TrEMBL record:
Membrane-related topology note: Multi-pass membrane protein
Organism of this sequence: Durusdinium trenchii
Compositional bias segments (type: Acidic residues): 591-600
Major localization listed first in the record, in broad terms: membrane
Domain of life per record: Eukaryota
Membrane-spanning residues: 106-134, 146-168, 194-216, 237-259, 313-332, 344-363, 369-387
Subcellular localization, as worded in the UniProt entry: Membrane
Pfam families assigned to the protein according to its UniProt record, in alphabetical order: Voltage_CLC
Residues spanning the signal sequence: 1-17
Protein name as annotated: Chloride channel protein
Length: 607
């Protein structure tokens, strides 16, 4: 416990002392960046360095978390810094790298490849890393050439990793979730297992959204306590104390839970060297099954659960371990340290699956059920898919970990059932999408946001005061200053009479203003961007949404029927409006009627 206290103290001091932005997984911010919005400030070298060191301490401290989210953010951050260094030294590369424009620019493709390499190394699954990032960013931000680039990137990363491990005489199995293949003579599952697989998937289909809801409630409660009570006057010390106290709570809870485990002799088998048997209070040559699941890394615990040898003591230990880890995992939400919950969800599902397998073995000993490790894999896939709302990636990761493609079919069945149940009963989105909404990060999902179905273009326009709508190709410096100061809009119109002839990005105006200090007028037309698209003010949100979400249009003029300028709809403004209405809908302040979801007319023209 003393060691965990020291690690937690060092961890929280690093985060709050050097880079408070490094607290959390970084997945939501990374997802917003890959969606085409500028959250690149979170890719600073300081934040990445702190996140790199802090994620090591957060895992060694014993927090109920994984390292997947921070690893993906680190991979994307390293790609961003590399591209920024190249563009700084080679001016001809700046336009190609497209440091600030919307996705999919070359920098963002590099960040996707970096994230795929990170996931590939964690699970030793290059194809799984590619599929994970594909589901993470969706097809709207995945150009055709990115498949080949990510394939080559993961190939190089995997080869380099194996080579470095060979130099130090280590094996990849020591660092990843891995299960030995038992050969074609060993049948993984039988017909009698199909019904239990279905029941397990249904149960975890209900558990996954419940877990997400509880995590969000704890996160809201912790945020309220830290920012809206007397504790806000003692920040960041209150958050640091919260982190240290939770580390002590984890140590005490895991220790007490491990005391309930009985000692068992370590099995003499060739798999012993790949599994982490924790002795705890047992004698030499014996191990505690509960401690072996809780007093180790999440990867080590999942590896133990996936073991296909039918150890009954692991199944029984899963009950205590499941309750302990599930509770700690929920209560941990909102603690400001860099963590991921991908492996955590796998571990919860794996414990539940192992428990179901053990119960079946006790209730129906005459039936020749599959090993408990197979039930653990089914449970991990079902829980993970329900938590992350993913399909192919969880199957690929677990198939790779199991070292056997024969279990792909039941895994796919489990994922399908779990996702179907989750979509039916969930009152919230997937975990990452909920974080985007609650942090109010700009993000446009490829599917139309149904809460916007009653909106039109005039309802979605950015707020532009009169001072922001007076810029001409040659504008007075005072007019530019007034336009920049009167609002925070990302785009400004350049007018010729009542008509909009072009759009001016805020970043371009600010750059021109700094470049021409001391002058009375500035040629702002030099930074104008002519999109060529004008939208009628009555156009429905459903009609214009694909232009911004899938075609990555950054901004467009809204005009009246006679062509008079009415306003601007920007991608950032549309994302903010979508987030706002989703938050209102979740709180119950806005009623939605699915019966008229398709009643909005889509025959209005986009000029």
């Amino acid at each position: 416990m003393a060691l965990m206290f020291v690690f937690a103290l060092v961890l929280t001091s690093l985060v709050h002392g050097l880079a408070p932005e490094a607290g959390g997984s970084g997945s939501a911010e990374n997802k917003a960046w890959l969606n085409g919005f500028d959250t690149s400030k979170l890719f600073s070298p300081t934040i990445l360095a702190v996140r790199f060191v802090a994620v090591i301490f957060s895992n060694t401290t014993g927090f109920p978390c994984g390292r997947e989210g921070p690893t993906v953010a680190l991979g994307g951050g390293m790609a961003f810094i590399l591209c920024r260094c190249i563009s700084a030294k080679h001016k001809e590369a700046r336009e190609y790298l497209d440091m600030r424009a919307g996705a999919p620019g070359a920098v963002r493709m590099g960040c996707i490849v970096g994230g795929a390499c990170g996931m590939a190394m964690i699970f030793n699954a290059p194809l799984g890393g590619i599929l994970y990032m594909f589901e993470e960013v969706s097809s709207s931000s995945w150009p055709m050439e990115l498949t080949f680039k990510s394939f080559v990137g993961c190939t190089i990363c995997t080869t380099l990793s194996y080579s470095l491990l060979a130099v130090v005489h280590r094996g990849i199995r020591e660092f990843v979730i891995f299960e030995m293949w038992y050969g074609p003579a060993v049948q993984d599952y039988r017909a009698c297992d199909i019904l239990p697989f279905i029941i397990l998937s249904v149960l975890l289909g209900f558990l996954a959204p419940l877990h997400t809801m509880l995590c969000l409630k704890v996160q809201e409660m912790r945020k309220h306590l830290q920012s809206e009570t007397v504790l806000r006057r003692f920040q960041p010390w209150a958050k640091m104390i919260d982190t240290v106290l939770f580390a002590i709570l984890c140590a005490a809870a895991v220790g007490l839970a491990s005391l309930s485990g009985e000692c068992h002799e370590i099995p003499e088998q060739k798999l012993q060297q790949d599994l982490s048997y924790v002795q705890f209070q047992c004698e030499e040559g014996f191990f505690n099954p509960v401690a072996s699941l809780l007093l180790t890394t999440p990867d080590g615990a999942v590896k133990m659960l996936f073991n296909r040898d039918n150890f009954e003591f692991l199944g029984l230990a899963s009950a205590v371990s499941f309750l302990t880890y599930f509770t700690l995992n929920v209560l941990f939400t909102g603690v400001p340290v860099p963590t991921g919950n991908f492996t955590g969800a796998m571990l919860i599902g794996g414990m539940a699956g192992r428990l179901i397998g053990c119960v079946l073995g006790h209730l129906l000993p005459q039936m020749d059920f599959a090993p408990q490790g197979i039930y653990s894999m089914i449970g991990a896939a079902a829980m993970l898919s329900g938590f992350k709302q993913m399909t192919i990636a969880p199957v690929m990761f677990i198939v790779t970990a199991a070292n056997n493609v024969d279990i792909a079919a039941p895994l796919m069945m489990a994922v399908s059932i779990s996702l179907f149940i989750s979509h039916m009963v969930a009152c919230q989105d997937a975990w990452d999408e909920e974080q985007l909404i609650r942090k109010k990060l700009p993000y446009l999902p490829p599917e139309f946001c149904k809460e916007l179905r009653h909106f039109s273009a005039c309802d979605l326009m950015d707020e532009l005061p009169a001072a922001a709508c007076q810029l001409k190709p040659f504008a007075l410096t005072s007019q530019i200053d007034e336009a920049l100061m009167c609002c925070s809009a990302p785009w400004f119109p350049m007018l010729d009479g009542p008509r909009c002839v072009s759009l001016l990005p805020r970043s371009g105006l600010e750059k021109q203003r700094r470049k021409h200090l001391g002058t009375d007028s500035i040629h702002v037309g030099a930074v104008a961007q002519r999109t060529g698209i004008q939208i009628l003010e009555g156009t429905s949100a459903a009609s214009l949404y694909p232009l911004f979400a899938q075609a990555h249009l950054q901004a467009a003029c809204v005009v009246t029927a006679d062509g008079t300028f009415a306003g601007i709809v920007s991608r950032a403004g549309l994302a903010a409006k979508a987030t706002e209405v989703e938050l209102v809908a979740e709180k119950g302040d806005c009623a939605t009627d699915d019966s008229d979801a398709d009643s909005e007319s889509s025959d209005r023209d986009i000029a």
